[in-house]
Structure formats: C-alpha cells, structure tokens
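Sample intake sheet
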Amino acid sequence: MIRVQMPAHLRTLAKVVGEVSLEVEAPVTQRRLLDALEAKFPQLQGTIRDHVSKERRAYVRYFACMEDVSFAPMDAELPEDVVSGKEPFLVVGSLSGG
C-alpha cells in the first residue's frame, strides 16, 4: 500500500483527511501512482498534472524519500521505501518570489 501526502487544499478538494493509501501495480512509477490517485479522486484531475499532456503543473513538486523527483522520468520506478509504504510519496505546493 502506497501512502500519499498532499497539501490541505488538495485534501479538501478530494474530501479526505490525512494521507491517502493507494494500491498501484508493479512496477510503481510516478505515472502509475498519479494515474491511480486521479482515478480514485477524479476531482484532482488537472490540479497536479495537465489534463492533456499529463505534465506536472508549475508550482507542484513530488518527493520520494526526501528527494525531489519532480524532474525525474515519469516511468522511472519509485524507491522501495515508497512502494512498501515505509515512506510516503509527497505532493507539495511550491512558491516563488523574492
């Protein structure tokens, strides 16, 4: 079971409290995990990835095992600690400015 933690505004949109648990078929990749997340919570479609291109939205970052995987290939396998549920996959909103 994969654990996913999201910011408050996405949890509110998905109508969940706390983290989300997902079943994802192996090999577990960012693409498969995000497909499963959007399938379970269709209201998130278009919020963390573009509807058409499926590219990550600007100002959204993905973290696995304390590492920013936002620019990693979408079909690269996620670390075993995320796959096993030991560590969560994080969807984080980022900011810019000075």
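Comment: DSSP finds three helices and five strands in the chain. The helical segments are 8-14, 30-40, 80-83.
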